[in-house]
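Data availability excerpt. The first of two example chains:
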Amino acid sequence: MSPASLYRRLSLRTRITISFVLLMAGAMGFIVLAEQVDYDQVRAAVVARTQHGEVQRLQALLDRGQRPALPAGTQLFDAHDVPVVLRQYGPGHHGEEAPNEWHLSVFDSGDQRYYLLEDATHYSYLEHLINAFAALVISICVLGAFLIGRKVATHVIAPITRLADAVQDGHKPFPYQDARDEIGVLARAFALHSDELERFLHREQCFSGDASHELRTPLAIIGGAAETLACQLPADSHLVPSAERILRTTQEMQRQLACLLLLSRAPSTVPRNEVALRPLIESCMERCQPWLSGKPVIIAFDALHDTVLHTNADLAHSIIWNLLRNACQYTDRGEVRITLRDTALIIADTGPGLPSSIDPQQFERFLPGSPHSGEGLGLSIVQRIVEHLGWRMTVHSSQQGCQFSLEWPL
């Protein structure tokens, strides 16, 4: 078995562990090699070389009978003016380390012996060079660790990247499903989940098609029969209200069915056109009159001018109808006020507000223990439609009433 195939059989945790161990071993090895450098020997070699060059320069000047100019921190003595303490040193290089650092070069030029004395300031730059070398070593270690770590990390996460790209682009079958490591577990889980989603989507598409085909036709027949019955009955017949109620309910079911079928589609595929909101609101207000009959409640509509939106008429109608119907149904006294602006629609009532079991920020379907059967369902539909159209809905509820604010982009 080759090393590459053996490496691929290891778990992802083991690969990452091995990579970090190798990275640390490489960094420590480089540091150990850098520590092998003897800085004292390097410093001594540089000082000796510098002094040798300075001695050669001075010898050339002295041979020509010139008195050389010396830099700060440097002194040149001959055999007559040399301090007694320096006379003991013979030709060559001598010195003393810190803290009392000095360097002495004894040489002969012609028939005269000279003593070149230099203090520590002349070689202070060596400390900076040594510190710079240490910083260079650290920088090389950091840079090497970064490059090696990046290469190793890229190699380790390459299967994850390839799997993520396949999942994002929907390229099936997903790679690495036969792998025995964590990548294989993840790939098989993605494949299983993707298959389940495809089956669920197929069932949803079948349901939408069946509901559209199997329910619309019976509802149309019921609606037509109810309309015919209401028209043919005598005006004073006690069956006329029942026939009209059947007709209204059937029409409402047709609208709700159309709305739910639109919600099952992607938002980008929902047909949109220019819709005037004022007629929609007025039609909903007229349909809400049965819920206001016999109650001291007035319904008011404030609109500065007509507002036209590029939206879906059925979905917009469903939003207004659900909110306005709930407001009229649960308000026992006071008023229901509708305010239409350029970018907002506000429906406020003086009812008891939302029950404590309903969260105004997140409506749930079929809330358990709700004292009003079905009220959570209508609000959840409204919230789904609002999100589907790209609108925003805010709710303020208290014991003095409830206010729904709908906002849409310009």
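And the second chain:
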Amino acid sequence: MGDKDGGLRRWRTRYREVLDGAEAEARPKGLRELVQPVDEVAYKLFRETYPEQHLHLQVALGAAQRTFDRRTRTSVQNALRCVVRTVLDDPRLGDRPDRYLAAYLDQEVAEIRGWLRQDSVTAVSRGLNIGLAMGAVAGMALLAVPVLWGVPVLRVLGVTLDCANRWTLLGAFVAGGLGALGAVLSVLVRLRLSVEQLASRQTVGKERTIPPGRQLARSLRHEGVYRVFVGWILALAVYFLLSGGLVPVFELPATTAQICPAPGHAGSAAKGTDFWVFWCAVGFVSGFNERWAFGILGRDATHRNTKGGAPQATAHSSPSGD
């Protein structure tokens, strides 16, 4: 029983880490704790001789203890132990800085920073993909529930839908569902080449500090869900504009009046196919252009910032690259 409970607990921990990333260390440690007691004198000499590199290594250790991916955390901490061990054992460690030893430390710091940046990229990609998946699942539910159970529920409430009403509502749900799919594909296409740029944009403060991976993942997860629902809303808006005749420039290939049987008119199954194909295409194209709505918001915010002064760095930005 205990093994079963322990396995379930480990599974839950792994699931949470996939979704939200690894939790920060409960007991943060400093660089000095990586040093053996017999090396205290050498460590003090290193700290006094190379204060800048020591500070960079200390900052890297602090960032490693709150990384999104636990494997990155372990790799960075092991690398730091190796660096400290190498420096303390180096015979060139003395009262005055050695340029070769300093160059080695600078190179190691640069590589560790690259690992930490890649961890931020992983957090951004994971969060956005999970957000898109959650939005797509919610979109499928919004599509399936009314289609499967909407008519019986309305019948219980005393509302009867004729053939034209059913085709109209089904067209709206199909257009909205394809709009959500188009929004997902739109983000994925742009995400393939812009994840690192997106991670670099999630910065705060004058020093362009990147937030912890868990915060990045949570922020981009919400962004992914929002994108899917923006695709839904845009597709529905276009559907109602065109089906309502508010934009007479477009000629609909099929209407409900042509599909449904009526006195003196048997209806047309071929027109029904045209109806589905047309609104599926309209919904998908509308959702695929979800970045158009975010682009309008971005330009409006930029315009306000320009009028009020120099634009300020924001803690959250769009993954579209607009």
